[in-house]
Amino acid sequence: MSSEVSLGIPELPAPDYPADVRARLETDAREVIARYPGSRSALLPLLHLVQSEEGYVTRTGIRFCAEMLELTTAEVTAVATFYTMYRRKPSGDYQVGVCTNTLCAVMGGDAIFEELREHLGVGNDETTADGKITLEHIECNAACDFAPVVMVNWEFFDNQTPESAKQLVDDLMAGREVRPTRGAPLCTYKETARILAGFPDLREGAVEATGGAGPASLAGLRLARGEAQARVVGQRGQTPEHAPPAQPPQDDADLHATPTSPSPAEHPSSHDAPRQTAESDPAHPADPVGEHAEQEEGDR
Amino acid sequence: MTVEPAEKLLAPVLSAFWDDPRSWTLDTYRRHEGYQALTKALAMAPDDLIAYVKDSGLRGRGGAGFPTGMKWQFIPQGDNKPHYLVVNADESEPGTCKDIPLLFANPHALIEGIVIACYAIRSHHAFIYLRGEVVPVLRRLHEAVREAYQAGYLGKDIKGTGFDLELTVHAGAGAYICGEETALLDSLEGRRGQPRLRPPFPAVEGLYACPTVVNNVESIASVPAIIHRGKEWFRSMGSEKSPGFTLYSLSGHVARPGQYEGPLGITLRQLLDMGGGMRPGHRLKFWTPGGSSTPMFTEEHLDVPLDYEGVGAAGSMLGTKALQCFDETTCVVRAVTRWTEFYAHESCGKCTPCREGTYWLVQLLRDIEAGKGRAGDLEKLADIADNINGKSFCALGDGAAAPIASSLKYFRAEYEEHIERGGCPFDPARSTAWADTSRTEAHA
């Protein structure tokens, strides 16, 4: 590795955005700033905003934030370099983040990351030659009951395997539509950054995509309702007769349509899935919000 | 003695209609008695409301378990300063996965709780600080807030009471430390997320140096149910000191990972029992009661009541009720090393013991895991952990020390084995979610 030591004059100030871009971003920035009692609170959203323009936080973006908030570029840089979601170099359209915190790593995240690294030929925080994919290892993303988890542009791809993750990146590189297990059909990293800046996703169907809660989120509810059988567990990977595959969320039947979302039958936790036709238990005493709530209060 | 089926111990409240096909919408929430608590609350005097929540015994669900009503009571009234409510939705503690599914499936429970809380503490501007890495949740929060404004639950003159409230959804940018309440406030002010020295506490000088309540998502989302169904109903669940219901998150090598909502004080044995146990053919080795920052437990703690005092008495903390379960295929040194790498990565650098200590812990642990550990390393490890614990501004350092101290307590022999045999005796392939599947296939 060679490192150049420059002893010349300090870097010139960053160039400004072209006038039309600047005007558009200023309108957005004023809207963001107006949400807060103190203008500096808008800095994190504004950094997301400049990232939505160029895909990473450039010196121009830093200058823009500083000017909008009457801060120095040093102050803005100090903040931009503290948070991991701000990129400091050009990156891919799709950020593929593999959770390698302990639980996901143990459950297979390490193997998935290795597989993708080999398959894509890039290391951590590196981008494929076609500029499509940046591979990253990420920290716990609050989806441990869906481990191992992969995030693409911060949408959830739950219960991944090395095979499903490879298929996922192949689809992304081939430009095929990819749908997460929880979240909306993928948009680019820049478009994602705009949502993060606080501008709602206006695409039709984006909010309702993939339905209510994911299957693991419903594990306790199904049990409490008597819709799932307790203490009957099949061998992992087999589909025992007594455990029919899960139903996909009801209002999005084509959730499992793409090869990147494992179908219910091949889902690694399919055998745990709630039963399709189970007897409910109307006499259930532990449902304080059900219609029998009042009489139960007396029982307690 | 009659044995009740374990699953009958569950009590879904916040999760009661998560399986509704459009559970996140205002319509669905209203169909399930949503915003009825708000009407009741707005008819009460704010001080009475604070007293009511205090009497309910609700304790913070973000990890520390501080009584929610007491936090509200600390806000000075009549001080002519703006008051703020900041909801901590920066859920990032390893293993913790309750607030994110809650907000994805039922964001209005939080919004109703926010309006009630703000009315009580006389706040006219609230913030939801959501970690940035969960865009599907951000989308639904944007939509739920829009719906709530449109329906008159937010904005000017809410429900004709003259009470005004603005609610801002704020996305973070990737920093575990911002889950710490004072770091969160610095971050929300547009700064690097670093914890503040206390006092002054946020209740006196919080956001913009004004009185501020910082509450966890689940705490605030639990308030509407308490108001609507009554504090007696709430107290009918759990124990005297840990009343109410809560979300337990079961993950790892269990047969049926997921969210289990029930009364506080349930045990891991009961949860595993109803969840189908560990994955077939395997035994529980170690687990965390409330995320990686809570000292780990083993099989001998299966019957510890999972409430604040029960877990505390057994030497750990209830934390976020993130029950990460690892079976006998898992190397505890590998698990602790990875957690420690996380703490080193996330240490904000403000306090020397944490910044330097976590770095050196990682060096030692990586060596031990790779079989390059030396005699005396375990003592050094324990010593460094001890020098971090309790010696920094915030609890990140304590969190980093917890897995080390507890794993050395229960699994010292395993560390020694790594040093003596010069390597790790475990095969990571056997721990994966698909390990038993591929073995079956290979032998078929």
Automatic annotation (TrEMBL), chain A:
Compositional bias per record (Basic and acidic residues), positions renumbered to this chain: 281-300
Catalytic activity, reaction form: a quinone + NADH + 5 H(+)(in) = a quinol + NAD(+) + 4 H(+)(out)
Entry-linked InterPro entries: NuoE-like, NuoE_dom, NuoE_N, Thioredoxin-like_sf
CDD domains according to UniProt: TRX_Fd_NuoE
Cofactor: [2Fe-2S] cluster
Region (Disordered): 229-300
Keywords: 2Fe-2S, Iron, Iron-sulfur, Metal-binding, NAD, Translocase
GO MF annotation terms: 2 iron, 2 sulfur cluster binding; metal ion binding; NADH dehydrogenase activity
Pfam families: 2Fe-2S_thioredx (PF01257)
Keyword Phosphoprotein: no
Listed PANTHER family: NADH DEHYDROGENASE [UBIQUINONE] FLAVOPROTEIN 2, MITOCHONDRIAL, NADH DEHYDROGENASE UBIQUINONE FLAVOPROTEIN 2, MITOCHONDRIAL
Entry similarity comment: Belongs to the complex I 24 kDa subunit family.
Biological function: NDH-1 shuttles electrons from NADH, via FMN and iron-sulfur (Fe-S) centers, to quinones in the respiratory chain. The immediate electron acceptor for the enzyme in this species is believed to be menaquinone. Couples the redox reaction to proton translocation (for every two electrons transferred, four hydrogen ions are translocated across the cytoplasmic membrane), and thus conserves the redox energy in a proton gradient.
Listed name of the protein: NADH-quinone oxidoreductase subunit E
UniProtKB/TrEMBL annotation, chain B:
Keywords, sorted A to Z: 4Fe-4S, Flavoprotein, FMN, Iron, Iron-sulfur, Metal-binding, NAD, Quinone, Translocase
Co-factor(s): [4Fe-4S] cluster; FMN
UniProt xrefs under PROSITE patterns: COMPLEX1_51K_1, COMPLEX1_51K_2
SMART domains registered for this protein in UniProt: NADH_4Fe-4S (SM00928)
Database matches in Pfam families: Complex1_51K, NADH_4Fe-4S, SLBB
InterPro entries, A to Z: ComplexI_51kDa_subunit, NADH-UbQ_OxRdtase_51kDa_CS, NADH-UbQ_OxRdtase_suF, Nuo51_FMN-bd, Nuo51_FMN-bd_sf, Nuop51_4Fe4S-bd, Nuop51_4Fe4S-bd_sf, Soluble_ligand-bd
The reaction(s) this protein catalyses: a quinone + NADH + 5 H(+)(in) = a quinol + NAD(+) + 4 H(+)(out)
Biological process terms in GO annotation: cellular respiration
Highest taxon above the source species: Bacteria
Domain NADH-ubiquinone oxidoreductase 51kDa subunit iron-sulphur binding, residue spans: 333-378
EC number: 7.1.1.-
Keyword Iron-sulfur belongs to the record: yes
GO MF annotations in UniProt: 4 iron, 4 sulfur cluster binding; FMN binding; metal ion binding; NAD binding; NADH dehydrogenase (ubiquinone) activity; NADH dehydrogenase activity; quinone binding
Family, similarity comment: Belongs to the complex I 51 kDa subunit family.
Biological role stated in the UniProt entry: NDH-1 shuttles electrons from NADH, via FMN and iron-sulfur (Fe-S) centers, to quinones in the respiratory chain.
Protein name (Swiss-Prot/TrEMBL): NADH-quinone oxidoreductase subunit F
Organism (species): Actinacidiphila guanduensis
Upper taxonomic lineage: Bacteria, Bacillati, Actinomycetota, Actinomycetes, Kitasatosporales
